[in-house]
Amino acid sequence: MATTKEVDIELIKKLRAKTSAGILDCKNALIESNHDIDKAIGILRKKGILKASKKMGRETGEGVIYSYIHPGSRLGSLIELNCETDFVARTDDFMELAKEVAMQVVAMNPIAVDRKSVPDDILEQEKSIYEEQAKRMKKPEEIQKRIVESKIENFYKEVVLLEQGYFREPTKTIGDLIKEKIAVIGENIVVKRFERYELGE
User: Fold this and answer.
1) Contacts for 5-12 with beta carbons within 8 Å, 24 or more apart?
2) CB 190 within 8 A of CB 60
3) Do the beta carbons of residue 161 and residue 113 sit within 8 Å?
4) Residue 168 falls within a domain, yes or no?
5) Are β-strands 62-69 and 169-173 bridged in parallel, bridged antiparallel, or unpaired?
6) Which CATH number belongs to the domain containing residue 30 in this structure?
7) Claim to verify: residue 39 and residue 25 sit in the same structural domain
8) 92-108 and 174-185 helices cross at what angle (nearest 10)?
9) Which residues pair with 196 in a beta bridge?
10) List of the chain residues with pLDDT < 70
């Protein structure tokens, strides 16, 4: 039997197939429910994650371009945040989220919205560095491979906007923050793109 911190990957896959929730959300719900799928579904529903996940594939043709200038006027960002309707794009909740995401870009300097947007050359360069570091440890090849995979996961968490810890609450990711707003607002929300500006760059 897996410990409370360990969850069988097949169980996570089953819960994900039933709910369309994210892998981490499924894992946390299974831990909280002591590996009971039905209870885990209830937990996801209570947290609004189930409702949010079902909306995440819907088309987003409206939204805003939001600009944030940090006090001192030396740092700023520009983001495009999309939603489904113009009505939602004009709500205080949506504009508040846009501001928080724009501030995150300034504070944490991500390089891409999601994993698939990380430039291949940057990823390959990082992977090459990690492989060289792992070789120097003189560990078995399988362990070296796991070390590299772990370092790449950490790299994604540092540079991918949706996987970064929210600057106000680091235990929550920006992806989590957006899911919470989807559950409240009732529409799919997507960060389309962003730019970060620093004086002199």
Assistant:
1) 5/31, 7/31, 7/35, 8/35, 11/35, 11/37
2) yes
3) yes
4) yes
5) unpaired
6) 1.10.8.10
7) yes
8) 180
9) 77
10) 1-5, 20, 22, 48-60
Find residue 160's DSSP bridge partners.
Answer: 112
**Count of structural domains within the chain:** 3
Domain shared by 51 and 135, yes or no:
no
CB atoms within 10 A of CB 149: 13
How many whole angstroms separate alpha carbon 96 and alpha carbon 168? Answer: 14
**pTM of the full structure:** 0.69
Cα–Cα dist 42/120, whole Å: 39
The pairs formed by 66-74 with CB atoms below 8 angstroms and a separation of 24 or more are 66/95, 66/98, 66/99, 66/101, 66/102, 67/102, 68/99, 68/102, 68/103, 68/105, 68/106, 70/103, 70/106, 73/199, 74/198, 74/199
In a domain, 2, yes or no: no
Tokens 């939603």: give the residue: 83
Residue whose structure tokens are 């600009």: 67
- 148, 107: one domain: no
Look up the domain containing 29 and give its range: 9-55
Could you report the per-residue pLDDT of 51-78, keeping only the tens digit for each? 555 555 566 679 999 999 999 999 999 9
Q: How far apart are CA 30 and CA 36, in angstroms?
A: 6
**Judgement on whether residues 93 and 170 belong to the same structural domain of the protein:** yes
- CA-to-CA distance for 85 and 95, rounded, in angstroms? 13
pLDDT recorded at residue 2: 41
Same domain, residue pair 41 and 100: no
